[in-house]
Design brief:
homodimer; alpha+beta; Glutaredoxin; Glutathione S-transferase Yfyf (Class Pi), Chain A, domain 2; 2 domains; five-stranded mixed sheet; 12 helices; 5 strands; 49% helix; membrane (chains A, B)
Chain lengths: 290, 290
Amino acid sequence: MADDYQVQSNGGSSDLNSKPLLELYVKASAIDPRRIGADLFCQEFWMELYALYEIGVARVEVKTVNVNSEAFKKNFLGAQPPIMVEEEKGATYTDNREIEGRIFHLAKEFNVPLFEKDPSVEKRIENLYRNFKLFLRSKTENQKVPTPLEDMSAQTRVHYNRVVEQLTGIDQLLADRNSRYLLGNSMTEYDCELMPRLHHIRIIGQSLLSFDIPHNLTHLWNYVLTAYRTAAFIESCPADQDIIRHYKEQLNLFSNQRETLQTPTKTHTIPERVLCDIRNRGLAPDVKVQ
Amino acid sequence: MADDYQVQSNGGSSDLNSKPLLELYVKASAIDPRRIGADLFCQEFWMELYALYEIGVARVEVKTVNVNSEAFKKNFLGAQPPIMVEEEKGATYTDNREIEGRIFHLAKEFNVPLFEKDPSVEKRIENLYRNFKLFLRSKTENQKVPTPLEDMSAQTRVHYNRVVEQLTGIDQLLADRNSRYLLGNSMTEYDCELMPRLHHIRIIGQSLLSFDIPHNLTHLWNYVLTAYRTAAFIESCPADQDIIRHYKEQLNLFSNQRETLQTPTKTHTIPERVLCDIRNRGLAPDVKVQ
């Protein structure tokens, strides 16, 4: 079995018996099964688990699985990643509701504010990714290669406008709150949901849509920068090539092997001009004006 | 798009505008894409939605989708069934947490006791299916054709004993409560979870393991009979052949084409001897002693 999984252990060697060991099975990349794939739920739970690991509440092991391998199919009989296993309790959580339930209880037990509720934040972020997917599908419908952003149909423009409107709304929310994460100075489930989706929007926007998050949304870009400086996000983030491949497959777009042959890279920088704006406004305390 | 889906509508023609229309996309059978497949989460949500439909709270349309079709992939870009769409709200729920959240709110709004909590019931049913899968994997490990139940290794026997022990526990719970469903006289989410799993245990037990739910567990069998008389279960239940095919695929077991060629059947009867016990004890009010 061991050979089928790539293990990344976040567990220390001390206190081995006092902390629960949570194993998270995440979907492998279609390019290289040793790399993590672009499944958003897998990254979301990985970030939440990382938050528990960081403050010493749990040991975490992430295992990358090839869902088409016979070993995986036999072992989990039809269940799909993300799957979480807690061996000492004899528990296998194969459902997002169960996985979140277990993380929720651990967070509650140790007073980690990972699941604080905020309906206004929820409202603001809930349809962003759906609308982005509608925009993506519409713009790539009859397109063989990426075309300029201006070349879009009236229908595509409706979706495009909606995405920009929502991104602007989130930028405004972040401006009003003036905090590092959505709810304050520590990461919550809302960030674990939004950060990976914003990153996908960015990577897929650039590679397939000639689209970028508008550069004037300084607070939103500062939030993206925060993601790129958050260990939970960085650790769990797939390579650009794996993200692009994931969407190309779904859209049935021609894959020119570029992603397959390239050395995997991760875009964790933001445009220079935006970085200047962030510096000038003194938004990120650790980004100093030169 | 319409051609890719098999639609089963539960919506009436009156009150079209006053009730929300919920569309549930469920995984198709691998044998025949027009038939529903054996995905447990799909059946669970279908049963919950049926409960809302039955009392007139929502209109429900179930669409069977071939997840490998280009149309499906393009339309949902990587999301997997169950997927729920509520067009008038512009909402697509691709995550079990979101789907349940929406059904939960509707149930709450209309005072449907679908999500009543009962930790003791939860505890009693939670690991049954996991343990059954361990038993199934263990017993079929080196087996080409089903072997008698007695021919099992010591390791397999551990899993077998655990399954029987849990089934006995649920039988006991049902005997103590003396109610039609787990919590009382109306169906709750616990039944939507347990009924399909018990049915899979029965169908797969018989076809691959020479195993049956012990016949002395009269209350449990009576509960299975209740499932077979519950519209929400019957409507959403896949054919035996589709259930068997699903597990054979995961276990990498030889498929002798029998399931593929057979006319689909649904086992919704229980053993005659058990039915007599139920009658003699007067357990099911509608099963009369002849």
